[in-house]
Design a protein that fits this description.
alpha/beta; 5 helices
């Protein structure tokens, strides 16, 4: 069984209520329930962590050593300036997929650069809340090749 940790950064606890035109109307709890069902079918143990605090996210990444096989991370606004999250992902050597609900490359100029991307194996952006399941599908298939 593979262990996959989903990490959401600042303000993603407000999914379903904030900027519905950008982020949709589903809460992450609803999405997570669907992801749990899919994970169970694929022999994946799924866990979830959300924080509005950068240091807590860094600590969670570091605490994942030896416990987690893959990370799905949506760093939120930290995407654009958190070198500490980049460094943590690089240090732990756990394969990670970066996801973004909105297409960060079509938004404000400051949102179009990710300092996290060089530390992950791939990025899924702009496909709505389904980016989490798409990342899980990728991981499921990636795991089968290992």
């Amino acid at each position: 069984m593979k262990n996959v940790l989903i990490i959401n950064g600042p303000n993603l606890n407000l999914l379903g209520t904030r900027e519905k035109d950008v982020y949709g109307s589903k809460s992450f709890n609803d999405v997570y329930d669907d992801l749990q069902k899919y994970a169970g079918e694929k022999n994946i143990e799924l866990s979830y962590f959300q924080s509005n605090i950068e240091g807590e996210i860094v600590s969670k990444i570091q605490d994942s050593i030896g416990k987690t096989d893959f990370i799905i991370i949506n760093p939120g606004a930290l995407t654009h300036y958190s070198y500490s999250i980049h460094d943590a992902l690089t240090a732990v050597k756990i394969p990670a997929v970066e996801v973004h609900i909105s297409n960060i490359f079509t938004r404000e100029e400051w949102r179009q650069k990710s300092v996290i991307s060089p530390a992950v194996i791939g990025i899924i952006s702009g496909l709505g809340i389904s980016v989490y399941k798409l990342a899980l599908i990728f991981i499921s298939e990636y795991c089968n090749k290992k």
